[in-house]
Amino acid sequence: MRIALIGTRGVPARYGGFETCIEEVGSRLAAAGHEVIVYCRPTGDGAEQLETYKGMRLVHLPIVRKRSLETLAHTGLSVLHRSLRGVDAAIVFNSANAPLLPVIRARGIPVATHVDGLEWKRGKWGPTGQRYYRTAESLAVRWSDALIADAEGIADYYAREFEAETELIAYGAPISRPADAVRVAELDLAPGKYHLVVARFEPENHVLEAVQGYVASRAELPLVVVGSAPYADEYTAAVAAAADSRVRLLGGVWDQEQLDQLYAHALTYLHGHSVGGTNPSLLRAAGAGAYTLAFDVSFNREVIGEQGEFWRTPSELAGQLEDVEADPDRAHRGGEALQRAIARYNWDDVAAAYERLCVRLAEGRTPARRPSGRRTGVPEREPLRELELQH
Predict the structure, then answer these.
(1) Predicted TM-score of the model (pTM)
(2) Which of 49, 88, 270, 371 holds its CA 20 to 30 A away from the CA of 200?
(3) What's the CA gap between 62 and 244, in Å, rounded?
């Protein structure tokens, strides 16, 4: 098959979950003999624009450098590009791209939409942006031949809000615990002697609260913070202002070997993501055996279950950090248990599920009638607090 992957920054993966998914799934589909086309945005850092990567064909198209327009404008160019001719199935990532689904279908291409998380809950969007994302959810339900959810909480949301079925395909977790810590030592860090945050700097990822909780604690080991984000200068400044001398702000770390070693040798991994479904950073940390202190939402509980701890406030996190430093062996044992449990998230299985979906799309085995996209009118429950109420 010819399969198009549309709507992200592209590969190599250097940004977030969608890009990681495309790299892991697309490379496996290419290895299975399919022609995989990935539409990419310029990185802005002068990096070489590759024509192929891990067997995938890359198509580079320009962008509008404005947060509210970048994604949709680039996807618009992608769905009109000549390279889409003859594609058997397309996967569009991000429901924000839903207004362009009719263009793909008009070209005779069946399309599935990976709807991501509850994007309209992100604080970076004002009222207009939030209304747009809620409308885009409805359009994705109405115009997609299939919907992909990466977490049970997201699948439940679409079932409740729209009476729409989804393909539940989570991300995979790379299972590795490198014994080598030389790349950690380059940062003047010792194995098991630091806490770690890896996140895009956005309010819903609670980087600021993680730093505040750490600063409020009596923890003696340093907190290493990896991450940044475009259009996030104000939030980045707030994180820096909250830090004290124990906090190491590294910015973005694009060296995957070094990042893998940072995960593997951290005493704890602090995970604050709250609205994005199953998160690849959480899976990577768990796969590396890092003991995880996660923000208490259903998506995170779904992944780590009883093999970690959960927090809602900086003060709760402060107490957990102090307890871990008082008994580091418990954290080591917990990390090993989490690594064993997380093996159920397997990229080979994920890629196989995408392949089966693409086959169904290419063969025209899609619902004769999709849901209307109208919301059910059932009073909306707060999906991020459902698990809190249950527990």
Answers:
(1) 0.85
(2) 49
(3) 40
Is residue 102 within 8 A of residue 265, CB to CB? The reply is no
Nearest alpha carbon to residue 173 among 268, 260, 301, 261: 260
Contacts of 62 (CB under 8 A, 6+ apart): 42, 74, 77
How many residues does this entry show for the chain? Answer: 391
Tens-digit pLDDT profile for residues 209-257? 999 999 999 999 999 999 988 778 899 999 999 999 999 999 999 888 9
Per-residue pLDDT at 68 = 67
Residue 101's φ and ψ, nearest 5 degrees, are -60, -40
Identify which of 76, 68, 69, 108 has the alpha carbon closest to the alpha carbon of residue 92.
Answer: 76
DSSP 101-153: HHHHHHTT--EEEE--S-GGG-TTS-HHHHHHHHHHHHHHHHH-SEEEESSHH
Is the Cβ–Cβ distance between 97 and 119 less than 8 Å? no
Cβ–Cβ under 8 Å, residues 149 and 277: yes
Peptide bond between residue 12 and the one before it cis (omega within 30 degrees of 0): yes
CATH number of 2-172+348-380: 3.40.50.2000
**Structural domain boundaries in the chain:** 2-172+348-380, 182-344
Strand 89-93 relative to strand 56-60: parallel, antiparallel, unpaired? unpaired
Q: Which residue has the tokens 């890359």?
A: 58
| Fold equal for 2-172+348-380 and 182-344 | yes
Q: Which fold has domain 182-344?
A: Rossmann fold (3.40.50)
User: Which residues are paired to 114 by β-bridges?
Assistant: 93, 148
Q: How far apart are CA 162 and CA 138, in angstroms?
A: 8
